[in-house]
User: Which sequence fits this backbone?
């Protein structure tokens, strides 16, 4: 059995930054630090931060006035920001800058009198936060059928935007339906689907035809991780999602000559290392890291916080990258 590693995989800059913000808030102010919703959608990360004193809340009523508060990477509605300010909370905004870009697009379109068709999952934190940037005039669509049902006041005054963690194919299909129905619709200058989602999906598309099985590391609530599993299956491989290496079922590997491994943008690199170690123990003879683009995107920390990386990213990839170049067990 050979193991192929998708490249890139695991953390993106926005996730790394969001976790680092929580860690630095804990270091600077001590526990507890309150985080509005899950900072990122990964159970291992959430458990580790909870152990350090982070409290994940779904309502600001769960935190006292004046508390240290971090907004999650997916963004929050304006009403939550106003409430936190009114209650004197010390706020650090960990919203991914690429999500903020979508927020600015929606605000600009509404200010110019356009209704916005927002492509994404209606119940996802990112969509809820984006819709909450304005008062009305935003229509969420999840399917082509949803596009057909949208009712707008003026078909000539329509814009569109997308959730950043969608698959490229998924977004393209819906945007095509929007353009077909509203030929004058205005879209973003550059694709809203984030670079990390695009890169990880492209890596899986390249890897899947070479594999019998693909293990996708990431939590069930992570949309970008779910899309990686779906893309793998669409391109010919059986795909399984796991939070940890212990969840890999040896039965999945029976008869597999090649097993691919990737991870969603919210999954720590160390979890990939653990899966590879498990596959070695199960009889893998070689590990090969595939070629892929080098991601050089970095995002600054919020004002008042020093530049740093999360402790999770520091645990990650260097040791595995070294061992992947040689035959295992040598």
Assistant:
């Amino acid at each position: 059995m050979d193991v192929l590693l998708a490249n890139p995989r695991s953390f993106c800059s926005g996730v790394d930054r969001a976790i680092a913000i929580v860690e630095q808030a804990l270091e600077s102010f001590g526990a507890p630090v309150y985080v509005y919703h899950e900072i990122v959608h990964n159970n291992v990360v959430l458990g580790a931060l909870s152990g350090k004193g982070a409290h994940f809340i779904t309502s600001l009523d769960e935190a006292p006035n004046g508390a240290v508060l971090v907004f999650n990477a997916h963004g929050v509605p304006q009403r939550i920001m106003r409430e936190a300010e009114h209650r004197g909370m010390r706020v650090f905004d960990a919203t991914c800058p690429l999500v903020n870009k979508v927020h600015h697009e929606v605000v600009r379109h509404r200010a110019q009198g356009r209704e916005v068709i927002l492509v994404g999952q209606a119940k996802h934190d990112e969509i809820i936060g984006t819709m909450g940037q304005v008062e009305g005039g935003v229509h969420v669509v999840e399917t082509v059928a949803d596009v057909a049902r949208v009712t707008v006041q003026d078909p000539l005054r329509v814009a569109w935007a997308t959730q950043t963690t969608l698959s490229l194919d998924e977004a393209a299909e819906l945007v095509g339906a929007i353009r077909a129905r509203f030929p004058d619709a205005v879209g973003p200058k550059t694709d809203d689907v984030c670079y990390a989602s695009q890169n990880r999906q492209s890596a899986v598309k390249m890897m899947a035809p070479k594999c019998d099985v693909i293990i996708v590391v990431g939590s069930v609530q992570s949309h970008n991780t779910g899309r990686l599993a779906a893309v793998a299956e669409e391109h010919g491989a059986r795909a399984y999602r796991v939070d940890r290496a212990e969840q890999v079922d040896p039965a999945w590997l029976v008869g597999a000559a090649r097993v691919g491994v990737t991870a969603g943008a919210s999954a720590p690199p160390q979890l990939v290392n653990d899966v590879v170690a498990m596959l070695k123990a199960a009889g893998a003879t070689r590990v090969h890291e595939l070629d892929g683009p080098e991601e050089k995107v970095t995002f600054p920390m919020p004002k008042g916080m020093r530049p740093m990386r999360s402790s999770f990213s520091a645990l990650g990839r260097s040791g595995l990258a070294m061992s992947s170049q040689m035959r295992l067990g040598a």
Remarks:
- The mean pLDDT is 92.
- The longest strand covers residues 258-263.
